Structures are given as C-alpha cells and as structure tokens.
Queue: 2 jobs
Job 1
Amino acid sequence: MSIETVHGREMIVHFDGERCVHTRHCVLDRPDVFVPNTPGEWIHPDRATPAELLEIAHNCPSGAIRCTSADGALIEAAPLVNTVRVRENGPLAFRAPLTIDGHDAGYRATLCRCGASARKPYCDGAHAAAGFSASGEPAAAESTPLAQRNGALTVEPIRDGPLHVSGNLELIAGTGRTINRVVECWLCRCGQSGKKPYCDGTHKRVNFRSS
Ligand code: SF4
Ligand code: FES
C-alpha cells in the first residue's frame, strides 16, 4: 500500500497503512480529523492546529502517521530518551531516531516479536490471531544510567534470527518500569525465546524463518 499524503493549509499528514497496527489512538483522540469508514477523504488536517497534529503523530506508536509543515520543514522532534516498550502479548514499540534494515524509519515503529507478521520486521497485528502470549512485564536486569539517552538507533533484523539493536536504548515494561538500559541488544522476534524480550538462540531450534 502506498503512503497517503494529505495536504492542509499549514500541515501535511502522511499515513502509511502498512505500518498501522490499529491501536486507534488517532480516531479516538481526534475523530474529527481521522474519520474512517467514510466515502472520500478521511483525513482532515485543517480541523486541528499544527501542535494538535503533532501530538496525534507522537501518540501513534507505529509511525503510521507522520506530520510535516507545508513548507517542507520537518517539525516532529526526536525523543529525548530512546525507548522500546514491551507490549503484553504484542509487539515492541520503539521511539527513537530509527534506522531499520538500513532505511530511515522516523521516530516511532512497532516491530513484530511473535514471529507471525506477514510484514516483518513490522507488526501487522498477527499476534492476536496467532494467540501470542508474552508478558509485558519482564523482570528487570541490573543496569546503570546511560551516559547519553538519545541519538541514532539502528535496528538490524538478522535473517531467521533476532533484531540486533545498536544505540542508546531504555527497555520499558507496560507499566513504565525500566527493565534495562543498553547500548546494544538482541531482541527475540521468533516469539519462542525463554528469556523474552531477549533472544536466547531458540530461533535455531524452532527453525524460525523471517521471510
Ligand atoms: S497505529 Fe497510528 S495510525 Fe494506526 S490506528 Fe494507531 S494511532 Fe492510528
Ligand atoms: S529470535 Fe527468538 S530466540 Fe532468537
């Protein structure tokens, strides 16, 4: 699916349907701006201020919604702290200046950790139908505060293996607990690790195929 681009007077909204994981923050927070299941245009940028549109974008965990000003300047700000939130029975939700599989991926992305997505490394919601069961409250590891908490974050999906993540990153449980602070880690995406969210090598035993 191509990215929908909708021009308002001051702002441009980009919507990438393949990234959307249907958390519905957009349609619940601003049902006047995002009006699904209607004929014709369903995104109405001029019904919100630029600041409000930016807030909608920031609350979109998948990065499906991105906003720029009409003059082309990028006005979404990078987060001050790079994070990945471990979603209960669901994906890994990253917030950071992301490069994923060698491509600029913006500041937000939800990546598959159940192994069932047809759009790996991105989540496509398949965890629900697959009955994926994994805690959003993993145990915390011993860690110390990072010297720097932001900056570029690279996610390299290893073929038939985990997500190799490089850069400053804080791992966060569903309730907001910090469970680790790292500059490099390998996160399970086969759904079978015994020490989720980290890879423990089980992908080899279960013959995980990433494509
Ligand atoms: S992932 Fe983003 S675009 Fe999709 S429903 Fe949620 S907030 Fe809306
Ligand atoms: S990717 Fe799941 S155990 Fe390695």
Job 2
Amino acid sequence: MKLSPAELPEPSADGRAASERLSGVIAAEITARGGWISFARYMELALYEPGLGYYAGGAQKFGDHAAGGDFLTAPELTPLFARALARQVAQVLSASAPAVIEAGAGSGRLAADLLPALDALGCLPERYLILELSGALRARQQATLDERAPRYRDRIAWLDSLPDEFSGCLLGNEVLDAMPSHAVQWLADGGIEEVGVGLEAGRLVERSRPAQGALLRAAQGLGMAMDYRGEISLAVRAWVSDLSRRLSRGALLLIDYGLPRHELYHPQRNGGSLRCHYRHRVHQEPFWYPGLSDITSHVDFTAVAEAGFDAGLDVMGYSSQANFLLNCGIGELLGGAEVGAGELCMPGTPLRGTATANLRERGAVNVLLSPNEMGELFKVIALGRGLPGPLLGFLRGDKVHAL
Ligand SMILES: C[S@@+](CC[C@H](N)C(=O)[O-])C[C@H]1O[C@@H](n2cnc3c(N)ncnc32)[C@H](O)[C@@H]1O
C-alpha cells in the first residue's frame, strides 16, 4: 500500500537531524551546479553519500519492522533462498573457476548462508569476494560473517574496485534496483525532458529541462509516442556492461524486481516505477526526509540482457524468481526438513524441527514463490561466457524470448 508522507511514522530526532545534514549537502550541490541536478545524482546522494545516505548511514535498513528495518530481502527471509541458489552457483563454479563475487551484500546474510551450502555441495569457492559501495554495510557484513560463518572467513575479502578480469560466478541480489535512475518525461509532441531536482525557497522540488546526450539517446530508443513519465537507469547499463567485459569465463547471476522493456514502459505503467521504502511502508515521495528511505526503481531486464550481449556474453536464462528457485529444488529443500528451529534467525544452529519453525519456513518460501509477493515480480537473469548450458535454474519456464 502506498502512503502519503502524513501517514508515515515520524522519524526519530536523530534521524531527522541526519536527514537535515544530508539535505544541506544536496542543496549545496544543487546551488554549486547552477540550480539543478539530475534525479540520478539526487538518488546517488540520498542513498550513498558517505555517513549520511540511506545505505551509507546508520539506519537498520534490512529486517522486520520490530527490528527497525525498512524491508526484507530474500536472503533475510529464509536460508533456503541461499541453499537453492547454491545449486545454481555450484554448476557455474564447476564449469568455470572456484570464485564468487557478491555485489551489494547488504547485511552479509546471503554470504553467511551460501558458503556452508556450497561447502555441503562439495563446491566451496576458494575466494568469496564482496563488492560493496557502502562503508557502513561493509562493516556490518564483516560482523555478520565473523559471527555466522567463522569457518569461511579466511576465504572472504572485500574489493575496493572490480578486478580487471575474473572467472567464476558474480551474484547480485537486489543491487540493480538500488542504482541511480534518471527520471524522464516524454511529451506527445516528440520532445523529451529530463526531470531533475532544484530548490524553491530552500525546499527540494522537481525541475525539468530538455534531455541530452546518452539519456536522450536512450529515451529516444524507447520510442514513446505519448505523454509518459518513467525512469531510465544509465548506471545499470554501464555497470552490467563493465562487468560483462571483465568476465573471462563463468556467469553473472542477477536477481531483482523488474520487467522486460515492453512491459516496463507499457502505457499502463505511465508514471514510472520509482518507490521509496520506510519502515515497511511504501511511498512515492523521494524528497521526504532524504536519506531515511530506500529509493528504488524497477529494472529494465531487456537493457541488462543487451548490455551483456553487446559485451559478448550469452543470455543463458531469464525467468521469474519462483521458476528459478523451484528449478533449483527449493521445494525439496523445504520438504526435506533441512531447516530447524531458530534457523530463520540463526543459520548454523542445530537442526531441531518444530512445528513453529516449519510453519515459518513455509511462510517464508511462500513469500519467495507466490505470484502476489516476490515470485513473479522478481526475475533472475544469467549472462555467461564459455559455459555449457543449460543452466539448472532455467530448465523449466525460461523466458529469454520475452526480453
Ligand atoms: C537492496 S540492498 C540488497 C542487499 C542484499 N543483496 C540483500 O539481498 O539483502 C542493495 C545493496 O547494493 C549495494 N550497492 C548498490 N550499488 C552498488 C554498486 N554499484 N556496487 C556494489 N554495491 C552496490 C548497496 O550498498 C546494498 O548493499
């Protein structure tokens, strides 16, 4: 349910003060740049400004409402997500190299569950490298892995930048949607405007100007012939393209919410897909207390596929999260009672099946698979080089043709 700011819980005094400092930084940049910044730059500052941005500051972010979180991601919901994913990762590692790079590792929970799952499959990577933009999250990931995966700590390292080349599997769960996007207004007369951010009486406001350069070309490429508002993420295209060029052998496995282009830019989606998350509420006011809400937009999976393809990768699979996880055997993992009491909160604790724990697991897997929750909206794409197919996760229900 989308809410107006008046319906959102009032942030704490500390939260308001941090947001005020970030607003000052943003306002100073707008002024220094002649009164206008792109929405993508605004999003970058609101999410990643060191010490103040949503992902770079002290907010809890991941986790349930009681723990002060704003949203739950799949790895936070149940360790079965990592265990199912491990089967696909193992196939990629066996055919390429024993190395994993995880981009945007959040709380570190996926790494903590994936490493023992790969170990159990006899496919423990020699190196598990984490690429994380946020210094605050990097520290949180280190603490999570010290606590939950001490056996594997000597294999885990953090990257400051991408290696020139790598072989193995690169993973990213909900990373693409957290990258900055530009806001675009197509006009019925053929004009294309970029909606950016300016200041009015000290307040952040939308300001439009004619789109230019790479954004104009990308917007023209979508061929909209009506008044239409939406987002384009040049950052996603550039990131996937850069990674793809560096992949010698192996696969990029990217999981996120999004759609193929013809569905994302459908007339019925006029208005775009920008969403903000605060304390498990969804709102559409990105200027409400900058730095306190997550800001996301849906991923254009056709653009992701094109970026990989143009860099010489094969689009090896594209599917809903539900199909992918089912193909990877999440049903058997659930049915096999491999998850016991307390594991939702503490992976690695002794397995003692209780009715309550099993019910919680079933509920969590239902959220991952249900078409009304994450099952259909979330997609998985595999871009590979030098890998024999087919990939396990796409054996049934592959939709590459829909991209
Ligand atoms: C929505 S969170 C998802 C976290 C985690 N993967 C999960 O599923 O719980 C987005 C993550 O991506 C990171 N991120 C965003 N852009 C990134 C980039 N260009 N490189 C590396 N990490 C990035 C954020 O700092 C954050 O850790």
